[in-house]
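thread from #wetlab-drylab

HS: before we spend reagent money on co-crystallization trials with adenosine-5'-triphosphate, can we at least see a predicted complex? here's what I'd submit
DV: go for it
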Amino acid sequence: MTALLRVENLRIELATRLGVAPVIDDVSFELAAGETLSFVGESGCGKSMTALAIMGLLPDKVGRIAAGKILFNGEDMTQASDERLRSLRGNDISMIFQEPMTSLNPVFTIGEQIAEVLRRHKQMDKRDAWKRAAELLDAVRIPDATHRVGHYPHQLSGGQRQRVMIAMALACEPKVLIADEPTTALDVTIQAQIFDLLEDLRKDMGTAIIMITHDMGVVAEMADRMIVMYAGRKIEQGDVHTVLDHPRHPYTKGLIACVPHLVATLDEHRPPLTEVSGIVPGLQEFGKNECLFASRCDRVVERCLRERPTEQRFDKDQVSACWQANTL
Amino acid sequence: MTLLRAVAQRLLYAALLLLAVLVLNFSMMHLAPGDVADTIAQSMGGADSDVMARIRSDYGLDQPFSVQLMRYIGNVLQFDLGYSFFYNQPVTSLIFSKLPATLLLVVTAQLLALTVGVLLGVYSARKQDGIVSHFVTVFALFGYSAPVFWTGILLLIAFSLKIPLFPVAGMIDVTVEGGFFARFIDLLRHMVLPVITLASIFIALYSRLCRASMMEVLGTDYIRTARSKGLSTREVVYKHALKNSLSPVITLAGLQFSAVVSGAVLVEAVFSWPGLGSLALQSIIARDTPTILGILFFSALVVIVGNLITDLALRWIDPRVRSRT
Ligand SMILES: Nc1ncnc2c1ncn2[C@@H]1O[C@H](COP(=O)(O)OP(=O)(O)OP(=O)(O)O)[C@@H](O)[C@H]1O
Ligand SMILES: [Mg+2]
C-alpha cells in the first residue's frame, strides 16, 4: 500500500539576519491512512515548520521549501498551484495550532468560522452549513451547541476554543489532521479531555493524525509511530513501543529518561521535557556536516564531529541517525 | 437591549457635553470686548449712551452673568438661539439654511477619506515594497503637512482656472436649466474640489493607520487559521483581516470628526461654499454674537453625533466592544 502522505528529502530554508539557514534539513517520512504519527523534540527543532510546509503555509518571504517533495496521494504539493493547494487545505489536510487563544478570528462568530469551511469545500448553502456547524460543536462536546454556535471566541475558554478549532479542522472529514501541540497552552485536566476527543474523532473518521508534541506521555498513549526531531533533522523514527523500549539514539534515550512514568495516566502532571543537559545549537549551525547533538552527547566519537550520521535501519522500520546506533 | 442601553448612555454624555459647550461658549463671548448693543448702535450709525443703556436693558445685557447664562440655556432648550441683528432673522433658521451644505461637505469628505484611505492602506499593506506603498507614505506626509487652504487654492488654480473642469465657487449654479438630474450633476461638479481638498488630509491619516493595522493583522494567528482553511486571498484579506484592521481607523475617524468640521470652515472660505463655515466667518467679522454662539453649538452637535455614529460602528465591527458595555 502506498503512503497517504510521503515527504521526501525535505529541506526548508529560513532567511534570518545571519543568512539563510536550513531549519529542516533532509527530512523524509511517510504517513499511512488512519495512523497516528507523533513528532517529538525540543522547542525550536523545526516541528511546526514541517507542519506548515505540508500545509503550504510557511511564513511569507521568510521560509521556503528549498528541496524535496511532499506527496499527498502521489501528488507533489510543492509543485501544485495555489488554487490546487487551497482546495486541499482545510478539506483533505487540516491543521490545529499551538495557540487556541489567538487562532480564532475575534470578530466572527464561531459558527460562521466553522460554516465558512463547509461552504468553501462542501458547497453547502448558508443554512445547512450553519446547522452542520452546530452539530460539529456538539460533536466536539461543547455544551448547548445550538446556542453557543452564535457566540464569539472571547466568550469561550481556551479549552473550548481549541475544541472549536478541532471542529473546524474536522468539518470536512480530512484525510490528514496535523495537530501542532494542541494542548500546550491548556491546563492539565483540559489536555486529557482534548486528547480523548481527538482519539474518538480519529476512530470515527479514520483520519490520519500527525501529532506534534513535547510530551512523551502523549506519544505513548496516542501514537502508532513516532519521529524524533533534533535541530531540523530526523534523528530517530519507529514504532512507538519499539522506540520507547529500545531507543537507538542518545537523544531519544535522554528524552525518555526525563519522563518518570511513561505509563502514568494522562491526568497526572508530568514534568516538561527539558532535562537533557546542554542546549540546542543555534539556527546558523543547522547546516553543518556533523552530528548536531555531539556537544551534548556522552557517547561522542571523533567521527561525529566530521560527518553527519547517515540513517541506519533496524528491525520494525526503526531508523536512527547515529554513528553509534548499533551499540545502543 | 444592550444596544439601547449603550445608546442611552452615550446620549446622556452627549447632553452633558452640550451643556458644557453652551456654558463655555457663552462665557467666552461674554469675556470678549463688545456686545450686541455695540452692533446695533453701529448699524444705526452710532448712538449716545442713553440709547445704548436702553438697548442693554431691553436685551437683558445689564443683568448679572448667571442670569443671562440661564436665560440663554433656557432659550436654547426651546431651540431658540436668539436673533441675528446682522442678518435680521432668527439664528436657528439662519443656521438651518446653511447646515445642509456643511453636512454635505463634511459627511461626503469623511466617507471619501475613509473609503480611499482604507483601500490605499490595505493595498499598500499587501504590497509593502510596491509603488503604491511608497506613494502612500509620501502622500500621507504631504497630505498631512500641507495646509487645507493651500491645497484648496492649488486645486482651484489647476482644475478650474488653468483647466476649467470644475466651477470656481459656490454650490449650485442658478443658471443651470433642466430637471433634477441636471441640477444633481451640477451639484456634484461643485462638490468635487472642496470635497477632495477636505478629504485629502484625512485620506493621508487613514491610509497610513490602515496600512499599519493591516500589516499587524496579516501577521496574526487567526489569519494563518483562515489561510489553513483554504480560503482565497481575497476572502482572507477583505473578510478576515479587513474587519479587524478597521477598528483603529474608525476610532481615529471619530476622533478626527471635529477636525473635519473645523477643516470645513477653511474649505468653505476658499471655495465660497455656502455653509456654516462661511456664515461663521462673516458673523465673526460682524461681531454677530448670537449667530457665532449658534454655530459653535451646532458644530458641537455635529461632532457629538459623529462620535455617536463612530461608537455604534465600532460596536458593530468588534463584538468585544459590545460585551464590554
Ligand atoms: N516566522 C519566523 N521567522 C523566522 N524564524 C522563525 C519563524 N518561525 C520560526 N522560526 C525559527 O525556526 C526554528 C524552528 O521553529 P519551529 O516553530 O518549527 O520549532 P518547533 O519545533 O515547532 O518549536 P516549539 O516546540 O517551540 O513549537 C526556530 O529556531 C525558530 O526560531
Ligand atoms: Mg511549534
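DV: Chain B has two domains: 34-80, 98-324.
HS: ok that's useful, forwarding to the group
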